[in-house]
Amino acid sequence: MSPKNKEEKQIVAHSTIPAPIIEEVRHSYLTYAMSVIVARALPDVRDGLKPVHRRVLYAMNEMGLFPQARFRKSAAIVGDVLGKYHPHGDVACYEALAKLAQDFSTRYPLVLGQGNFGSIDGDSPAAMRYTEAKLSHLATELLRDIDKNTVNFVSNYDATKREPSVLPARLPMVLLNGTLGIAVGMATKIPPHNLGEVMDALVYLADNSDATTEDLLKFVEGPDFPTGGIIFNKKDIQHAYSTGRGGVLVRGEAEIVEQKSGHSQIVITSIPYQLNKAELVMRIADLVHEKRVEGIKDIRDESTTLDDTRIVIDLKTGAFPQKVLNSLYKHTDLETTFHFNMLALSGGVPETMSLKRILGEFLEHRKEVVKRRTQFDLDRARERAHILEGLKKALDHIDEVIKTIKKSSDVGDARKALIENFKLSEIQATAILEMKLQRLAALERKKIDNELKATQTLIEELADILKSVAKILAIVKTEFAEIRSKFADARRTKVVKGGVKEITTEDLIPDEETVLVLTRGGYVKRTRPEEYKRQKRGGVGVVDLDTKEEDFVTMLLAASTHADLLVFTDKGKVYQLKMYEIPEAKRATKGKSIMNFISLSEGERVTSVLPLPKASREREAFELAMVTKRGIAKKVMAEKLFDVRRSGIIAITLDKGDELLAVFPVEKNDSIVLASRGGQAIRFKESDVRAMGRSAGGVRGMKLKPGDEIVGAELVSKGTEDKFGLFVMSENGLGKKTKIKEYKVQKRGGSGIKTAKVTNKTGKLVVAKVLPLTAGEPDTDEELVAMSKQGQVIRVLSREVPTLGRQTQGVRIMKLRPGDSVASVEVL
User: Fold this and answer.
1) Third-level CATH fold of 49-168
2) pLDDT at 719 over 50
3) Where in 97-158 does DSSP place strands (E)?
4) Looking at the predicted structure, is the pLDDT value of residue 533 above 70?
5) Residue 197 — φ and ψ, nearest 5°?
């Protein structure tokens, strides 16, 4: 090894410091983490800026790029920032500059941009060599008085220049523009706010130091996003501002517009903050293509500017606008949650702060800035007064001063002589020597006297301010009022006091009247009422269900799509499902097996379905009456049958061979009418049947002859006997109405009285229902939909059925084909 190599090896060996790798990694990573937290990712609570933004603004201020100045190339600004203050990537620096100029990203832009600085549709800014920028008027308020020793300056990265550690900032930008930053192990997310509201809250806090966050929220309604939108639930807002953390629901504004042509549109006029508008439109188009959102015919973006956001969604004929809009809220970011994480640096330490803490920190910052500015002005005023006092003394003895100067050999001797002869300071002597001869004029001498008096008055005022905390605070409040009057604007984001419930499947289903069809074989479907063509009584009807030969329709039920359905079976069990869970189908289709929706046991058959409107759960407790085919009656509290498990529960205990026939709600003083297949009927008070437990078996409601069974069980409300009649229809299509008052109220358990003349011509009774005797308006009158075992359906008005006596057979309601018979009748 050569001597040279040995020497190099020794140098390397002596410069290497042995260290455990674990300690070295821990130390290095901690250093890196603190650098990211303190010097890159988190804002200072005082001026609300991250270091890169602060350096950009300060560099632009040093370049003289004030609002009234000419624009300069962004590349020149970025170069100045990187070369003097921010030794990082130019791309990141330019992105920070561009964001300060984007009115859709920044609530109050601090940079005025000329050129393409990007768009809300996700377009990137043009290259920095193409764009130009200068400071906005608001930005000058952040830099005002920076030359008056109002903040501390530190050395830049190479110690060749000085830069501010924080800006004097007359506005709390940490709230006004908010911030988003991800550091190591922590992150910050502060929403933007309205300037007028924040300044009002600051003034209130200045007057009331013991104010709570709740007090301040009387002024600050909530976030105010540059893109508008709607915020929900003030409780969530209060929690977020009190703790510094929390989620607030945000929606874009959308309006359903009815066109003159009858078609509907959904017009979106604002979107949530930080949402890419173009991606939102694409997302909606994808949902339509995937058929996850139905009813949309066309979508287009008609937006012109940020203040004129307009996304128009054309809907298909027959679409339900609210259903489509709910689907958009559910499946897109048109509804999103903004998560607060109000983390900022206070004294170089990251802390999660409440609204009061942030405003309080800024208030203290402004008081310190005003104090230091006042001290700076006082020092300058005293320095000026000292010089003016020397000039005045010289003018009072001007002849002696001139003689002294003329006798001196040079400037140094003259200065020394003036100091000794006239008791002047070196500064005063220098000022006298530099004084122009024009100052000897009488008017100029008067100006010096006036300036000295004004300066002495100013010194007294500034000294008084520094002695009084109240006066400093008064100046701070005055400046807040000035800022508010210059820059306050209207709120863009609406705040709704109440919350918005989570969008469920039910919200995506239109609330409309629908018809449920159930067959004896257990097939079920939903159909729109208009599928059935209205006819005169005696017509043939239309085919409704494509049933198998051995199957036939047993039930037709009208209810809202949002109704809860209590499904009762012949085994005395009850199941629960929503009407909209049953798929909608056309009139002639078969439907799906009920087994797809409830867990029926082998041989179990649905015999009754009770629709409960949405308000049922909110009503006071009410009772349900149950009637079996063998005439057994029972009452049970309805609440005992709510929220049924999927496998069902026992609703009534049945005797062997008996089946549950009907279930309906009853109220005090109502009466119950039962009608049998053999043409007998009984009416008794509901109070004759006492309320029982859910699994009880019930009591005798009507005594039946051998082979007879109940075909109808109906409720008659108190005081309505004169207005209603009992409608019955037989197997062969004959029917009639009989006045309820012809059925006297008797005790339960009797054999009843005749309700219809049953013959071979009529066949046995199939149904018995209570209907109004007088018809309503043509569009609101009750309609009867009768369905035969072979699937024939007829729909007739109730008023077309005549009111006849109990002993009559009735008139032809439905003309049946040979071998067919009526299976069921439902009232719409």
Assistant:
1) Topoisomerase II; domain 5 (3.90.199)
2) yes
3) 111-114, 132-135, 153-155
4) no
5) -65, -45
Q: Are 254 and 268 in contact (CB under 8 A)?
A: yes
The C-alpha atoms of residue 302 and residue 296 are separated, in whole angstroms, by 17
Is a pLDDT exceeding 50 seen at residue 275?
A: yes
* Of 81, 130, 76, 123, residue with least CA distance to 102: 123
| Residue 273 is among the residues annotated as catalytic for this protein | no
Distance CA 569, CA 650 (A): 10
Distance of CA 778 to the CA centre of its chain: 44
Residue 729 has phi, psi (to 5 degrees) of -140, 140
- Is the pLDDT score of 42 beyond 80? yes
> Are 328 and 266 spatial neighbours (Cβ–Cβ below 8 Å)?
yes
Cβ neighbours of residue 515 closer than 8 Å, sequence gap 6 or more: 526, 527, 528, 529, 531, 532, 556, 557, 558, 785, 826, 828
> In whole angstroms, what is the distance from residue 248 CA to residue 230 CA?
10
- Residue 679 gets the label, from left (phi > 0), alpha (psi -120 to 50) or beta, of left
Q: Which two tokens stand for residue 174?
A: 């940490």
Residues 732, 822: contact at Cβ < 8 Å? yes
pLDDT at 114 over 80: yes
Question: Whole-prediction pTM value?
Answer: 0.70
| Pick from 69, 71, 39, 54: nearest CA to 143 | 54
CB neighbours of 623 closer than 8 A, spacing ≥ 6? 635, 636, 637, 638, 665, 666, 667, 691
Q: Which amino acid is at 645?
A: R
pLDDT at 780: 45
Distances (CA, A) of 51 to 39, 42, 150: 6, 8, 18
Phi-psi group of 648: left, alpha or beta (phi > 0 → left; psi -120 to 50 → alpha; rest → beta):
left
| CATH number listed for the domain at residues 511-827 | 2.120.10.90
Is the CB of residue 735 less than 8 Å from the CB of residue 813? yes
> What tokens were used for 231?
């915020």
Percent of the chain with pLDDT over 90: 51
Model confidence at 775, in pLDDT bands (50, 70, 90)?
Answer: low
Task: Tokens for 567, please give them.
Answer: 């499904």
Dihedral (CA of 332, 333, 334, 339) sign: positive
Q: Where are the domains of the chain?
A: 49-168, 253-333, 511-827
Q: List the Cα angle 596/573/591 in 5-degree steps.
A: 25
β-strand partners of 154: 163
Q: Checking phi first, is residue 713 left (phi over 0); if not, alpha (psi -120 to 50) or beta?
A: beta
Nearest CA to 727 among 799, 654, 671, 652? 799
pLDDT at residue 597 tops 70: yes
Quote the CA–CA distance of 431 and 423 in Å, as a whole number: 14
Angle at 805 between CA 801 and CA 808, to 5 degrees: 85
The CATH number of the structural domain formed by 253-333 is 3.30.1360.40
Residue 575, H or E segment: strand 573-578
Buried b (16+ CB within 10 A) or exposed e, 110-121: bbbbbbebbbbe
- pLDDT tens digits, one per residue of 57-84: 999 999 999 999 999 999 999 999 999 9
Please give the structure tokens belonging to residue 806: 């109990």
Query: Rg of the chain over CA atoms, in angstroms?
Result: 44
- Fold identical between 49-168 and 511-827? no
Residue labelled with tokens 């197997």? 731
**Which of 130, 157, 273, 743 does the annotation list as catalytic?**
130
**Confidence bin at 123 (pLDDT 50/70/90):** very high
Judging by beta carbons within 10 Å of its beta carbon (0-12, 13-18, 19+), is residue 228 exposed, middle or buried?
Answer: buried
**Between residues 28 and 47, the one the model is more confident about:** 47
Beta-bridge partner residues of 573 = 650
The mean pLDDT value for 486-506 works out to 83
Residues 6+ apart with CB under 8 A from 796: 534, 535, 536, 537, 539, 783, 784, 786, 813
